[in-house]
Here is the input.
Amino acid sequence: MGNESAIIVPAPEVEPVVGPLRLQFDMGARLGIPAHITLLYPFRSAQAVAGEIKTLRDVCASVEVFPFSFIEVRGFPETAYLHPDKSEIFAQITGTLAGTWPDCKPYNGAFSEIIPHLTVADHVDRAILTTVEDSVRPHLPIHCVAREVWLLTSDDSGMWSKKACFPLAASRTA
Here is the structure.
């Protein structure tokens, strides 16, 4: 697929632990997608995102920077992922984005519940899921800070890149 976009929270703190696994077992990593939690996918076509930058900047400016941790490895069928301890905050942000762009349903409306997660391995068999879990579990928890939101776009070949970066608001409690 090409000419798509997604809104994510990058999680660079986990790259040393999951980067090599993602490159091996998650096609998205090989297409240029960094370790992240998806907030809204699909968003607009890559050509249409320019008209949404100001609104997206305003939405992100209304969200405070927040710490979170990846606390366990969980799975969907054929998928191993890291589960964040503050998943409700990510779900609230997704809800705000989906409310701002009601025609952009998370995952095209395929799921009744949005489960914030960071994919480590996708479309793999049970043995690989177990290997991934055994490899990652000793490194948990992994402490992170959500500081910004990225708008990613894909080109005709399906490669993804950062189109824009939106800082979150400084914490008023810090």
